[in-house]
């Protein structure tokens, strides 16, 4: 017998029980600790849920699975129904089999599915026919299949998140009690060098102190450590996970069994987990992403996975061209030695890696997910205005074919102009300067990119942004306008026309003061405004901006100089990126020139001065 998927119970305190079991929880009783579900006589509970339905369509398409059975542990009298749900114009329910079961003590019953269609999900329903009816757990199973095991290297990059890492290591330890026992190892690159190596290390877990070269360097370090142990442990797959996610071991177990049973033609596929929001655990942020030259689109974003309809819709496959590194799994083979991350520090490092390795197939599966904080909580000027701009340009320059040749001097100028103008219109002059610097640093080329000290550069970029202050320390002069947080300007054609004719009031006298969240910091709010406080609602920190025409013209002058440089340098710079690209994603680069190698060999690059930045390069 091979366990395909264990029936999951909600964690203690989890209010979103309908992601696991559907029933009247005012009448039923759940004991999550002992994994018991008590149903009163006459009550029906169903398992057509995100975590406990079986994604039959995908298992049939991608794996060698021939048959599926359901093993249940029951006590009391139940009416058991095997069900298949298929999504047409509306969800359709088909009862495949029904049986009345009576057990005086906890017993195990096995039922075999005979699906009507290759599509949809398989699930089951239980109707309690006695007062003592208790569901004690179960599994979707099949006959043992003679295929080699999957051995997973879990690779994590962390920076000063000890609490998350402690929880992660504990959750990974639970794998020893399941189907992946002795088939996993964990490699944690500690970019902050703050983890207690002795406390966190074990036979299964390696802590790798690392210089802070960002996510790309941390994951590269962990991947290479896994490659070093590949033959020793028979490692077959690499799973990349962020350090600030919450997950359960069931997700890795479900994925591990699925990967083991893959058909030969899909053995090179990438597997990605979904991301749900920590503050709204039943709401999906994405399950795979689609990137084009102008944007990144999270797929199936906003799905409520307490809804049976959204669970079915989540099974529909879409065109994915990359998985973010919060949960991304791929084969660990010698090809990875020439295909490691590009040293981008952070932002777009996972996007570039995904585009480069995009090809055979991208697979997702209901129930394989992590929970992560909303990205709005992690917004920063340095990330959005420098790394987000510089690294997107680099990514597009390296993958022209993925964007149908749309990358050009004209596109680059337009992209930088839009990004710069969006900040100038809300008086974020330092942010606009960081956008321009991102363009300048792109033109400094790939040789500069791989030789610069990333820690020193990051400190300089962060220092160049608007200084943050606690929202409670706002100048007293803003007290009278706090209500502006709730008031938005009315959208109408006359106002838009007036804003257009007056250049959003940039050259007009202004006295208004505003307090705005970063999400609401849009140019329409700044019409005839002189000052504003922009703050993050999560961190309760912000900064003051003020209209300054002299600074605006200074930024525009720097942007024009950058445009002249683009005209002169664009073609040779892009050509150099493409020529050197294979070198800087290779094992040789990361072992001999990568920033983590400096830490291992004792080279103190913290003390290295950052090369002077030529203004208007």
Structural description of this entry:
With 617 residues, this protein is an alpha+beta fold. The protein has 3 domains: 2-142, Jelly Rolls (Sandwich), CATH 2.60.120.200; 152-373, Spore Coat Polysaccharide Biosynthesis Protein SpsA, Chain A (Alpha-Beta Complex), CATH 3.90.550.60; 381-552, no CATH class. It is 31% helix and 24% strand. It has 17 helices and 24 strands. The strands form 5 sheets. Strands 1, 2, 3, 4, 5, 6, 7 and 8 form an 8-stranded antiparallel β-sheet that branches. Strands 11-10-9-12-18-13-19 form a 7-stranded mixed β-sheet. Helix 10 (409-424) runs antiparallel to helix 11 (429-443). The chain is globular and about 85 Å long.
Short synopsis of the structure:
By secondary structure, the protein is of the alpha+beta class.
How many H/I helical runs? Answer: 17
- Helical fraction: 25-40%
Compute the number of structural domains.
3
Low-confidence stretches: 479-487, 599-611
How many beta-strand runs? 24
CATH class of the largest domain: Alpha Beta
Shape: globular
The CATH architecture classification of the largest domain is Alpha-Beta Complex
Mean pLDDT: 87
């Amino acid at each position: 017998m091979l366990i395909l998927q264990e029936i999951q119970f909600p964690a203690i305190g989890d209010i979103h029980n309908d992601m696991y079991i559907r029933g009247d929880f005012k009448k039923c009783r759940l004991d999550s600790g002992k994994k018991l579900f008590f149903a009163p006589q006459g009550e029906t509970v169903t398992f057509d849920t995100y975590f406990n339905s079986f994604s039959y369509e995908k298992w049939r398409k991608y794996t060698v699975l021939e048959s599926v059975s359901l093993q249940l542990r029951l006590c009391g009298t139940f009416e058991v129904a095997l069900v298949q749900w298929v999504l047409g114009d509306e969800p359709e329910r088909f009862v495949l089999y029904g049986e009345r079961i009576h057990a005086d003590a906890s017993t195990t019953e096995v039922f075999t599915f005979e699906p009507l269609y290759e599509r949809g999900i398989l699930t089951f329903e239980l109707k309690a026919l006695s007062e003592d009816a208790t569901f004690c757990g179960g599994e979707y199973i099949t006959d043992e299949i003679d295929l080699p095991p999957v051995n997973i290297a879990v690779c994590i990059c962390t920076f000063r998140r000890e609490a998350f890492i402690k929880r992660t290591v504990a959750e990974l330890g639970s794998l020893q009690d399941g189907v992946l026992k002795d088939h996993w190892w964990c490699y944690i690159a500690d970019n902050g060098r703050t983890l207690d190596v002795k406390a966190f290390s074990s036979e299964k877990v390696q802590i790798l102190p690392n210089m802070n070269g960002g996510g790309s360097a941390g994951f590269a370090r962990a991947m290479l450590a896994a490659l070093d142990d590949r033959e020793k442990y028979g490692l077959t797959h690499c799973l990349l996970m962020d350090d600030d996610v919450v997950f359960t071991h069931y997700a890795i177990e479900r994925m591990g069994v699925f990967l083991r049973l893959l058909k030969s033609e899909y053995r090179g596929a990438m597997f990605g987990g979904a991301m749900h929001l920590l503050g709204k655990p039943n709401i999906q942020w994405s399950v795979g992403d689609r990137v084009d030259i102008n944007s990144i689109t999270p797929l199936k974003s906003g799905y409520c996975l307490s809804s049976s309809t959204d669970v079915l819709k989540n099974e529909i496959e879409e065109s994915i061209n990359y998985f973010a590194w919060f949960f991304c799994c791929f084969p660990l083979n010698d090809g990875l030695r020439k295909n490691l991350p590009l040293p981008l520090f952070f932002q777009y490092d996972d996007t570039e890696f995904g585009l480069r390795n995009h090809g055979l197939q991208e697979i997702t599966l209901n129930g394989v997910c992590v929970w992560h904080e909303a990205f709005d909580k992690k917004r920063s000027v340095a990330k959005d205005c420098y790394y987000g701009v510089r690294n997107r340009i680099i990514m597009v320059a390296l993958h022209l074919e993925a964007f149908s040749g749309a990358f050009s001097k004209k596109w680059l100028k337009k992209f930088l102009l839009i990004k710069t103008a969006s900040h100038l219109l809300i008086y974020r002059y330092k942010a606009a300067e960081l956008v321009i610097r991102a363009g300048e640093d792109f033109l400094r080329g790939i040789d500069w990119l791989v030789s610069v000290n990333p820690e020193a550069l990051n400190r300089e970029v962060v220092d160049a942004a608007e200084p943050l202050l606690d929202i409670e320390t706002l100048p007293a002069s803003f007290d009278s306008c706090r209500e502006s947080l709730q008031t938005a300007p009315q959208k109408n054609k006359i106002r838009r026309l007036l804003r257009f004719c007056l250049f959003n009031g940039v050259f007009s006298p202004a006295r208004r003061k505003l307090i705005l969240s970063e999400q609401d910091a849009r140019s329409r709010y700044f019409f005839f405004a002189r000052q504003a406080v922009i703050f993050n609602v999560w961190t309760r920190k912000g900064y003051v901006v003020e209209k300054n025409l002299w600074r605006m013209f200074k930024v525009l002058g720097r942007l024009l100089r950058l445009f002249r440089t683009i005209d002169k340098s664009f073609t040779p710079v892009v050509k150099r990126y493409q020529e050197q690209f294979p070198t800087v994603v290779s094992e040789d680069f990361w072992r001999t020139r990568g920033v983590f190698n400096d830490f291992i060999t004792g080279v103190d690059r913290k003390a290295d001065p950052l090369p002077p930045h030529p203004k208007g390069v």
